[in-house]
Specification:
It is built from five helices and no strands. By secondary structure, it is mostly helical. The radius of gyration is 18 Å and the shape is globular.
């Protein structure tokens, strides 16, 4: 897989081929996730069930339930021209992080993008 039919920038294509290829399959595929929380210390079964909902390994691009609900909301309330699938959505830690990730991967150095709100990236 390379530039995904020209949709990604040069560096975005490198991310897909070089970076994603090194991520362990159990991180990218929620079906392969282990049902454990590594507290990196002595195992304590008491909080395991309580902490399960806090485990970040619900999916590389976000919690599957959240992605399904977001896709359903977009399809129901925003009358999109084509159906949005959960696979079309990624959740980020804030708008600036999302913009940074998207623009890094679709723009080449020297490209410009106007963003109508004050978002900053490092």
């Amino acid at each position: 897989m390379t530039n995904v039919d020209g949709l990604l920038s040069t560096r975005g294509g490198l991310n897909v081929t070089q970076v994603l290829g090194r991520i362990p399959s159990h991180v990218l595929n929620p079906a392969l996730h282990r049902d454990e929380i590594d507290l990196s210390m002595a195992e304590n079964q008491t909080p395991a069930d309580c902490l399960q909902h806090l485990d970040w390994l619900k999916g590389f691009f976000g919690d599957a339930t959240l992605l399904d609900l977001l896709a359903s909301t977009v399809n129901t309330h925003f009358r999109s021209h084509s159906q949005v699938a959960a696979d079309n959505i990624a959740v980020t830690a804030g708008a600036a992080a999302g913009l940074d990730a998207i623009l890094y991967n679709i723009c080449n150095p020297g490209d410009g993008v106007l963003v109508p709100c004050p978002y900053w990236s490092e």
